[in-house]
UniProtKB/TrEMBL annotation, chains A, B:
Assembly notes: Homodimer.
Residue segments, region Disordered: 234-258
Database matches in Gene3D superfamilies: Anticodon-binding domain (3.40.50.800), Bira Bifunctional Protein, Domain 2 (3.30.930.10), YbaK/aminoacyl-tRNA synthetase-associated domain (3.90.960.10)
Name of the protein in question: Proline--tRNA ligase
PROSITE patterns named in the record: AA_TRNA_LIGASE_II (PS50862)
NCBIfam families noted in UniProt: PRK09194.1, proS_fam_II
EC number: 6.1.1.15
Subcellular location: Cytoplasm
Originating gene: proS
Organism: Comamonas faecalis
Length: 581, 581
């Protein structure tokens, strides 16, 4: 490609609404152009990146035996009513009425449509396993779209759906996809981690997220540097405490802590480690009658070490809390604890509550908690002596860096990631809701066992940039760069020698299948270099009269701090070897 | 591709709602699957065809210097309000409100968005010419979607938009696109015709439709077999009459024609040629005040030869009628003609009307028209003698087969076509509405001169099928077939020889870059052949034990009535030569 025949458009300044570096750089480099909140045009330079991402995904999906189709963007509401998602999804689901007043949605995913196709097309177990995928426009009406392509409203997703005859076969299909995802992410040339994720009501370990590692990532990722353990924060188990509970050594003492409503403040005031304090979280569960009216409520007190945070996913699975919990109201707190949040604790309650202690809290002695009296805490609290053992002891907390790995192979570390892929075993959730069956080997109808597998095609370039950039701009991995090589001729309009050398290298690289752009726009060197550094083309060749006199041109990788002189006759070979073409 | 790893799904019966052959065959061959009215999933077999169409379009658009981008499917209503299309487009435009109550549309085309991009990105004449295109999902909420992909609601279109500094440059850009379209349609391997189309208010000849010729086409196409004249029916001019008007030979006579309200009936009753009768069409135009209320109306009488039809586009451009016309009401007809339609004519009017005669009517003598009296016509009518010369003489009619070509090079013929492409010079229609300017060479802002260029990507396969099919199914041209070659092994599971020969040919063809599918499903020969004939793969190789004994396999083109025995060692070469790979 010659730059004069392409569309190169860069900006000095990032738009005012760009908060993250990928959004800033994608806009400045002319990859995307905002049309509305969370809605972007993929400009020619950006579309090249997206097409390369698509091509890698497509190749590996095909290799893994998935078959591509394209489902409609606009989908009938009735199908979405079959699974209840038409109502359940809330305002994120963009709903439309057509000219005849019929309900439609703009697809956020396509479980309903593909299950509808499967129940019509896959009639026998002999047609299974089957995996359909599409790379197609999606829409989620985010309440607060931001971060450019990172959390847009319109986006492109690769979504795949597997259909199997039984759970074992479905799990095998899942593993095939998980492996394909590893190949895909390897090929992107990004640093990523596949982490175990929560699989919701289905259970088991068949849910993994593919996270591109970046300091700016929204998600906390837990991993063990000494083993292959990796999970997202929701999912990561904390290892059970090792030692037994120490014997009480202190007396229970009411201690004034005026205005100190947090564990951190109390620990600082008393000069004790934060880990010796216990925080109280008050939840509630409701019993409903047939009409959905609340007939009774139960108040729960969760106790966590002061330096730990509650993990809502873990809590949502505890017996009694798995019906769905909420935070207690101020009235409930007052009526049970007799005081306001900030000074709550398990001692001296006005009404009984269910006490759930994190495993770490259950092995503490001489701990500190709120006194259920404003401006007071109690120190030297001990289980058994001062209060009964908790009703339930469980893993309630997010892990923290340094926690022992649950596989016993070292300490956990935490880093940030951007989720760009997810593989998920669905079981029969959708097939049962939509009565999607096939004839099993025994001649009876059976529900499809399903899996779903997504990759955020347009999110991936943003994640790649969050991971790979510097103060001058983007640094693309070769595989998804808009162009792999840029040739920058200096004074091409004045020098026949430069023009000839640039033209010859360009032709040689094209012939070798290298995705090269020749910058023939006639820009001055400074502006030209700044453009390509901003755009992030990984390999640059500079050709000028000065070097050519000695038969030299310059090579510089986008990460190199300086250029290297190379014999003009060697440059094509050098690039071919670097690019392995 | 091996069929066992692909998704082959055929149906014996077409769906009840399929009216046209392409809809029937695309559904039966498993290319598409209906999701809702006018909304289809492109199944794996169909998507392959669409991808090949896209690839050809993309290659030729790139070759012609257009640059690909992707504009959003969901577009803000405000932009559409700038051009007035948000209101004007009526219910065909699918409108959405997002969660914040803001108006959006699902794009039917993208003039507004690309003009918005141009007014931001193209600041100087130095950046022109520029042509952006996309291949993207579109939606038109057709009142009556039907004919499968031929008139669907959701579809894929390639839409390109050119921006130029002046009309001459814009016309040059238009010609570049028109040439690219010819290359594209040549490559599809279809019989097509580029025909002049009406260019609306802009005038000139810079509007062409690309019509795939098919007996079932919706559009009438006019062409001259002896020259390169071709136009759609709306646009096709009739040549002016040659001879002068003959002198009157008959007396004007009131003739009873009881119950004969059409020219055809009258001609039959009187035993005269239809071409000696004149039909009367009554139109009206309204004068409006500032508030849009009608303050006055003018009635028009259009006179056409009994064997001719009115051309609304031509009539809409006549002076006085170009403000917008309607058919007259029954009350207006009664008050001016004193009778009801069926017996109208230009003689003996109650109130004056403007009389417009088609050029052919203006040179008639001794003609027959309604008497403005029920059940009566007048014969022997003559201009000048019986009534004044018409207020206006013009080309009002559709041409008919046998009319002289307007280029004077022979007689016109008419055939049917399916419009799959359109190139159009827009002028400054959108740039003026959206105040989209660039700095011209004189340093002053100037409006972009634009063109737009569409290809119905998902309509094209349907048009190809309308043109190329037989009672057994589809017959694809090589370029857009889902697979170019199918290998059908007979008894592959029983015969090692068949399996080996099929596997070897498959590998050889793959290596040669042939898009081949090996049918390893184990279907019986009859079902296997029926499937591939229905699907329409153009080249078939059959491999069986019987032939292999003599070192032979069979080749059959989808259009051949019988197979040809070919040496197994020659088959790959034969296919390579047929496919020119």
């Amino acid at each position: 490609m010659k730059a004069s025949q392409f569309f190169v458009s860069t900006l000095k300044e990032a738009p005012a609404d760009a908060e993250v570096v990928s959004h800033k750089l994608m806009t400045r480099a002319g990859l995307i152009k905002k049309l509305g909140a969370g809605i972007y045009t993929y400009m020619p330079m950006g579309l090249r990146v997206i097409r390369k991402v698509e091509a890698i995904v497509r190749e590996e999906m095909n290799r893994a035996g998935a078959v591509e189709c394209t489902m409609p963007v606009v989908q009938p509401g009735e199908l979405w009513q079959e699974t209840g998602r038409f109502e359940k999804m809330g305002p994120e689901l963009l709903r439309i009425r057509d000219r005849h007043g019929r309900d439609f949605v703009v697809q956020p995913t396509s479980e309903e449509v593909i299950t509808d196709i499967a129940r019509q097309e896959l009639r026998s177990y002999k047609q299974l396993p089957r995996n359909f995928y599409q790379i197609q426009t999606k829409f989620r009406d985010e309440r607060r779209p931001r971060f450019g392509l990172m959390r847009g409203r319109e986006f492109t997703m690769k979504d795949a759906y597997s259909f199997d005859r039984n759970p074992e076969a479905a799990k095998a299909s899942y593993q095939v996809m998980a492996q394909a995802y590893r190949r895909i992410f390897d090929r992107f040339g990004l640093t990523y981690r596949a982490v175990a994720a929560d699989s919701g009501a289905i259970g088991g370990d068949l849910s993994e997220e593919f996270q591109v590692i970046a300091a700016t990532g929204e998600d906390a990722i837990v991993y063990c540097p000494a083993s292959d353990y990796a999970a997202n924060m929701e999912k990561a188990e904390s290892a059970p405490p090792t030692g037994p509970r120490p014997a009480p050594a202190q007396a229970q003492t009411l201690t004034p802590t005026p205005g100190k409503a947090t564990c951190a403040d109390v620990a600082a005031l008393l000069g004790v480690p934060l880990a010796s304090t216990v925080k109280s979280l008050v939840l509630a569960t409701d019993t409903l009658d047939e009409d959905g009216n609340v007939t009774a409520s139960q108040v729960w007190l969760l106790l966590l070490r002061g330096d730990h945070d509650m993990n809502e996913v873990k809590v949502s699975k505890l017996p009694g809390l798995d019906v769905g919990f909420r935070f207690a109201t101020l009235a409930e707190i007052q009526s049970h604890f007799g005081t306001e949040p900030g000074y709550l604790g398990p001692l001296g309650l006005l009404q009984p509550v269910k006490v759930v202690a994190d495993r770490e809290v259950a092995v503490m002695a001489d701990w500190i908690c709120g006194a259920n009296r404003k401006d007071y805490h109690i120190t030297g609290v001990n289980w058994g002596r001062d209060l009964p053992e908790p009703d339930l002891v469980a893993d309630l907390r997010n892990v923290v860096a340094g926690d022992p790995s649950p596989d016993g192979k070292g300490a956990l570390a935490i880093e940030r990631g951007i989720e760009v892929g997810h593989v998920f075993y669905l079981g029969t959730k959708y097939s049962k809701a939509m009565n999607a069956t096939f004839l099993a080997e025994d001649g009876k109808p059976a529900f499809f066992e399903m899996g779903c597998y997504g990759i955020g095609i347009t999110r991936l370039p943003a994640a790649a940039i969050e991971q790979n950039h510097d103060e001058r701009g983007i640094i693309w991995p070769d595989a998804i760069a808009p162009f792999t090589v840029v040739i920058c001729p200096i004074g091409m309009d004045r020098s026949e020698a430069v023009k000839a050398a640039a033209g010859q290298l360009y032709a040689e690289l094209l012939a070798a299948g290298v995705d090269v752009i020749l910058d023939d726009r006639g820009e001055r060197p400074g502006a030209m270099f700044a453009d390509w550094e901003l755009i992030g083309v990984p390999h640059r060749v500079t050709i000028g009269d000065k070097g050519l006199k000695d038969g030299k041109v310059e090579y510089q990788h986008r990460r190199d701090s300086a250029a290297t002189a190379v014999d003009v006759s060697q440059m094509a070979d050098l690039l071919r070897s670097k690019l392995a073409v």
